[in-house]
Amino acid sequence: MSSYRDLDIYKISFNLFINTHRFSMKLPNYELFELGSQLRRSSNSVNTNVVEGYGRRTYKNDLIKFLVYSEASGLETISHLEKIVALYPQLSLEAEELAKDYDLLGGKIHNFTEYVRANWKS
Question: Which InterPro entries match (predicted)?
């Protein structure tokens, strides 16, 4: 792999960020800068932590740390989506689908983290 762009977790998290950002704009106007902003920031963090971790890949522990941050931001994003499901039933189908996608991504990030722990050269 010659770039973070080669990582599946990067590709998936980037596409999910775009989809989540667009979804967040469907929230009521008064929610765009509250829950919508939190959703956008946590979704962005999933992706950017993958990139930052890859940038520090020379240091195995730094890479692991940022992958853990990325996975945690995914969980935060799922939590925001669960709130949207509860508050805005008209958006629940799309929010639930995004949450499932973040859950699957979290598993992929976790598996990659475990691969790095076991196989990455420091």
Answer: 23S_rRNA-intervening_sequence (IPR012657), 23S_rRNA_IVS_sf (IPR036583)
